[in-house]
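G., the chain you wanted modeled:
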Amino acid sequence: MPSDDRGSASLEFLTLGTLLIVPLAYLMLTLSALQGASIAGESAARSAARLLASDPESVETQALAAAAIDLAAADHGFEAGTVAQHVECSSTAGACQAAGAVVSVTVTIDVPLPFAPNLTGEAAPLSIPTSATASFAVTRFGLSS
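Predicted structure as tokens:
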């Protein structure tokens, strides 16, 4: 009994192609969002640590560092509410302004999964946290290179 298989290859290709391409496209969207958050976090942490190493105790410098973090996040499309920062200072002299003190800034960005709020109706926030840390030493003259 010969069977007529004409036209079934294109149907199989469309079905299998759709089943393979849709998850692959979603994976690419997710990975590109994670890569953007990684680059934004690294840039924000480095800029903030460099600013804070110049004068860690100054209110103006702290405001500039926070603005640098928000700007780096905004450049990559992340809202300020998804970005958190943590600043640490370690010094043998006990003061952050002492030469040799190390200022470390950790920036954490919560990356929402693409289309996830639409799927869950915002009942469960689905996000992946990414973080980056940068450290700079306070020099005798206040500005680290």
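The two ends are 81 Å apart (CA to CA).

Shout if anything looks off.
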